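Hi C.,

You asked whether I'd gotten around to modeling the 190-residue construct. I have! Everything is below, sequence then structure, no commentary in between.
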Amino acid sequence: MGTNLTKYNFSVSREQREQISGHKGKVLWFTGLSGSGKSTLANALDEKLNSKKYNTYILDGDNVRMGLNKDLGFSPEDRKENIRRISEVAKLFADSGKIVMTAFISPYSKDRDEARKLIGDDFIEIFVNTPIEECIERDPKGLYKKALNGEIKGFTGIDAPYQEPQNAEIEISDKTINESVIFILNKLKI
């Protein structure tokens, strides 16, 4: 960490930003295996919230890795740093009065716990609990096929672990996208 740093206290408060947004800032942390439907579900929820005039944004795993985190690979250390950075960014979005949805595999419980600790009460974990067999069958990016053929090493669910959340605020399984969106909105009381 750099030295000689002093936090600047800005004049406009979080409460003022939230007043303009018309709602509290939140972080909806979607986690699940590759192909589980995290991004699809976050996108559908974003459409619904946007239609209700909520101020939202999605931080998606692949999209963030093409920019902010393009210097990171998929080792456990790089995955940890990926989640640390996105936690910091998500916290800033929530502070700005946005409802930010993060769609990241985030395979390690410890990393998600650190995100929760950093973000605090604004953190809502949404476990998209899709069985690996279904994710392999869907395989929207062809990654499972490559991993099963040995072309990708350290692939979550194949030869790298995914530690399922034990206390997620919301768990999605056996629901259509529309049913899932309604379920999340009801849980969030939106």
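If it helps when you're writing up: The CA atoms of residues 33 and 47 lie 23 Å apart.

Thanks,
B.
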